[in-house]
Design a protein that fits this description.
293 residues, alpha/beta, Rossmann fold, GMP Synthetase, Chain A, domain 3, 10 helices, binds guanosine-5'-triphosphate, binds magnesium ion
Length: 293
C-alpha cells in the first residue's frame, strides 16, 4: 500500500521555500533568487521514496496584493491550501518571527490542515541564536513539530521529509516515480532565463520581467536552439536589460545558457530579445495565457 499527498509550502517572500523544494526533490524545479517574490506560479515538485510520494507545492511568498499579478498569487495560495493534505510553514531563521509570519500562521490555523514548521537558514545562525528563534517559532503556536533546517546545506532536511511523509494519507501515487515537477518543460526553461535576469537587476526591474519561450529546436543530440522573448514594461527597463553596448543582455545570455545546458544536457544556442509590453502585470487575459492563474 502506498501513501501520497500534497504539502503546501507557505511563508513570506524570500524565506527559502523554492530552495527547500529543490533540495527535497533533488533537482532544480523552481528558480531561486534573493529578490522577494521570485516565484509567481504554484509549482509542484515531486519526491518519491519507496512507497511514499510527497507532492510539494511551491507557492509565491504571501504579501498584500498590489496588482492583478500579486492578487492572483494571493488567490492561488488560498486555493492551494484547500487542496492540500498538510502545510509546511517556512520561516527565515535569520530574521526571526515577524507580523508577516503571524499573518500566515493565522491563515494556516484557519485552513485546519496539519501544520509543520521549518525554521530555515540555520547555517547562518549560532547555536544560541537557533535556540532563540526556535522558541519564537514555538510561540506562533501553529504546529506541533518544529524543524530547524538549512535548505542550502541540506542540514535537517531529511528529518523534516521523514516527518512530512508520515503525514501523507493512504493512496496511489499522483505522479510517475520518475517525475520531478508538473511544469511543462518550456516553462522551466523560461523560468531559468528569468532567474538569470532577476539576479542581475534591481528595484522594480525583476518584478517587471517575464520570459516567454518562442521556439525550442533540437537540431541534433548535441545542440538545441532556444529562442526567447524577455518582456519588460517600459523602454527604460529595456535599456537596462540591454545595457551599455549590449553588455547586460550578453551577461544574462551567458548565465542563462549555462543553466539551459545543464537542464537539457546538451549544448544550447540561445537567442534572446527584449520587448516592451506596457502593463502586462495588469492584463488579466495575458496572465491567463501565461499560465499564472
Ligand atoms: N544561507 C542560506 N540562504 C538560503 C537558504 N535557503 C534559501 N536561501 C537563500 O534565500 C534567498 C531566497 O530563496 P528562495 O528559495 O528564492 O525563497 P522563496 O521563499 O522561494 O522566495 P519567493 O519565491 O520570493 O517567495 C536565496 O538567495 C537563497 O539562496 C538557507 O538555508 N541558507
Ligand atoms: Mg520562491
Amino acid at each position: 500500500m502506498s501513501n501520497a499527498g500534497f504539502v503546501v509550502l507557505a511563508g513570506r517572500p524570500n524565506v527559502g521555500k523554492s530552495t527547500l523544494i529543490n533540495a527535497i526533490v533533488g533537482g532544480k524545479v523552481a528558480i531561486v533568487s534573493d529578490r522577494p517574490q521570485t516565484t509567481r506560479r504554484a509549482i509542484r515538485g515531486v519526491c518519491t521514496n519507496g512507497e511514499v510520494q510527497l507532492v510539494l507545492v511551491d507557492l509565491p511568498g504571501v504579501q498584500r496584493p498590489r496588482d492583478a499579478l500579486t492578487e492572483r498569487m494571493a488567490r492561488r495560495v488560498q486555493a492551494e491550501l484547500a487542496g492540500s493534505d498538510a502545510a509546511l510553514l517556512v520561516l527565515n531563521g535569520e530574521q526571526g518571527v515577524g507580523p508577516g509570519d503571524r499573518f500566515i500562521a493565522q491563515a494556516l490555523r484557519d485552513s485546519r490542515l496539519p501544520v509543520v514548521l521549518a525554521v530555515n537558514k540555520i547555517d547562518r545562525l549560532s547555536p544560541a541564536d537557533t535556540v532563540a528563534v526556535l522558541a519564537q517559532a514555538n510561540e506562533l503556536d501553529v504546529a506541533q513539530e518544529i524543524f530547524p533546517i538549512s535548505a542550502r546545506t541540506g542540514q535537517g532536511v531529511a528529518t523534516l521529509v521523514a516527518h512530512l511523509e508520515s503525514l501523507m494519507p493512504d493512496g496511489p501515487f499522483l505522479f510517475g516515480i520518475e517525475e520531478r515537477s508538473d511544469q511543462p518543460h518550456e516553462v522551466l526553461l523560461a523560468e531559468l532565463i528569468r532567474e538569470a535576469v532577476i539576479k542581475r537587476t534591481f528595484h522594480e526591474v525583476p518584478h517587471a520581467v517575464e520570459v516567454v519561450i518562442e521556439e525550442v529546436d533540437s537540431e541534433s543530440e548535441q545542440l538545441t536552439r532556444v529562442r526567447a522573448l524577455i518582456w519588460v514594461e517600459t523602454p527604460s527597463q529595456k535599456g537596462i536589460l540591454i545595457g551599455a553596448h549590449g553588455a547586460m543582455i550578453k551577461a544574462i545570455g551567458i548565465a542563462a545558457r549555462k543553466e539551459l545546458e545543464r537542464e537539457l544536457g546538451c549544448r544550447v544556442h540561445l537567442e534572446l530579445s527584449v520587448r516592451v509590453r506596457r502593463g502586462w502585470r495588469a492584463d488579466e487575459g495575458l496572465l491567463d495565457r501565461l499560465g499564472i492563474t
